[in-house]
Amino acid sequence: MRGKRVRIALAVVLALVMAVVATVHFGEDAITEAVIRAKVTEEQDRSLLEDKEHIQVLLCGTGSPEISAARAQACTLVAAGGKMFLFDAGEGATKSLADSDVPVTELDRVFLTHFHSDHFNGLATLVSESWIWGRKAPLPVWGPVGTEEVVTNLGAAYALDNGYREEHMGPQAENAAAAQAAPNEIEIPEGAESVRVYDEGGITIDARLVDHEPVEPAFGYVMTYRGKKVFVSGDTKVTPRNLPAMQDADLVVHEAYAAHLVRRALPIMREEGLSYEADVAERTIPYHADTIELAKQAQQAHVKRLALTHLTPWPDGLLPRRQFVAGMSDHYAGEITLGKDGLLIVV
């Protein structure tokens, strides 16, 4: 440990010496210009658009309504066939995508799973920022009935800001329509469990009903491409209803609730005078996906890889992350990935 600290100290000293030498040799102005030039010529990562062989899944938001250290709330980017689709846009989604160098101006569309705020309260920022930085057309947003109301009201909240930018910046005025999203409401026929919402270029996306009462309807989404299948669950409890979506999936991105940890925490919270917080936590247990039950269902459905997101309670640190998935491998033989913001999975 002491040797490691010495090596770190030497590296810092060497870096400082090199900086001083460079400044003396090249001059401060030259160094400043080089730094600026490097920054402005940084390129976004286009690999998500250029890879036509795989489905790539970026966990851009693994948080929940709980205040945590997560980079963002619910946000999953799925890229295939030169297209990028965003599933939910919770708070922090735009910054998280930017941190992963995703070219947000080239998103094909957004799919919302339901209208709990942590799944859409970053949408207005995404629409605004992608317009400011060059999107040329309204961003298509698809979701359950209610999508038009949500999108229209978010657009109204940004009306003053959009007006200022149109007046001040020429390109924004030329593409004023792109300051808005284009809402599209998905209705699943009576008696059906799913409906196809995208079928282009070998990519299919189906919206499927999931159980998240009292939120109705709530959707998960199934994508297929080049013989691969990915299911993004949205918020749902573990239920037989989800088996067709999960069946033989190459990857399931599923919300996860470590109920074993929450149940142990409840009496301690009440002992510490946190009865209100304990009551809130207790009420959330029945309509989220218990990690152990989820593992059992993934095994039953022959899921190849299970990626956990919407993590509750937030596993902040190595030990909490181990505790979060404790017991899951006893019931599921496939690969378990405990999500973290910025994680890219190639299918």
From TrEMBL:
All residue ranges annotated as the Metallo-beta-lactamase domain in the record: 72-288
PANTHER family noted in UniProt: ZINC PHOSPHODIESTERASE ELAC PROTEIN 1
Protein name, per record: Ribonuclease Z
Transmembrane segments: none
Superkingdom, taxonomy of origin: Bacteria
Organism: Actinocorallia herbida
Coiled-coil regions, chain positions: none
This protein's record includes keyword Hydrolase: yes
Keyword rRNA processing: no
Lineage summary: Bacteria, Bacillati, Actinomycetota, Actinomycetes, Streptosporangiales
GO MF terms, alphabetically ordered: 3'-tRNA processing endoribonuclease activity
Keyword line: Endonuclease, Hydrolase, Nuclease
